[in-house]
Amino acid sequence: MMLQTMNDTMGEVGGSVELKRKLDDGTLVPAQEGEKKAADLSAKMRQSAEEVLGLEFDKKVAWAGMRKAAGNKLFQGQRYQEAMDIYMTALVAISNDPKDVVESDEKISLPILLNLSMCALNLGNAGKAVAFCNHALSLESGLGKGSHKVYFRRGKGRIMTGDYKAAKEDFKKSLELCEAAAAAVEGGVEGLEGERKAIQKELQKLQKNMQAAKVNKKKVKAAMTTAVERGNVIEISKVEADRAPAFKRRVSKFNSARKGGERVGEGKGEGEGEGKGKGKGEGKGEGEGDGWVGLLLDYVCCRRRRERVKQA
């Protein structure tokens, strides 16, 4: 981090720097970790923007290429967060000139966003991975919509979030684009064949898991119905509990209701309401956590729109 670098330097003379946040009442409090990261990245972005200011487009592309290479080296060393920061700075080199949009997206925006999505996946941050892929799909040139890699990586991110139906559609679209790209080249492309097999493997695995979940759901429903009819306390195995955590919660509430003399209908209704509320809360939390990503992408990737409004 830039702040750490400053402290390392000042430490030689006994000094240090601490980032603080000013509250509405004027009180200064130590910044939280997320705020420190956002401030550090913002400083890096400003520094990078100054480096490319005034450069011709071809030199911006070359500069972005060097940043990408540096990020790739960090990625290969499994230093994914550091690689992500480097990739982010490369996005300041995108061109606002309409005549350079396609080349800018092809050589800078799309490959960098794809690399960012891979970093996010390796860090286990599905929300960021999906966000990067969504932005790639919204590129003005339309190149993102023709990339099988974008859909494939978004599909993997969606699996991590539990959105299996949407992930399946992404994998199907990815496979379609990959096969079309291979067919466009006489004799096919060996690299694309490997990617096609990888997509097929993920799609087949997902379909198998979705089918298993469907069967398990029917078993869960049947077990609940039988238990309610008999008025028995439900017992489930560890395997069933691992496969269906939601079912485990319902069983717990059902058993509590039975032991406490409550009506089963009331216990079940309470469980469903709590589950719905919890899901909503988790979704909100993830969105807030990824706020800096959206802020950065708006900063570096929406300048074209703002510049054209000014020119008009």
TrEMBL record:
Gene3D superfamilies in the record: Tetratricopeptide repeat domain
TPR repeats, residue ranges: 148-181
Coiled-coil spans in chain: 189-223
Highest taxon above the source species: Eukaryota
Region (Disordered): 255-292
Compositional bias segments (type: Basic and acidic residues): 259-287
Taxonomic source organism: Triparma strigata
Keywords: Coiled coil, Repeat, TPR repeat
Membrane-spanning ranges: none
The protein's name in its UniProt record: Uncharacterized protein
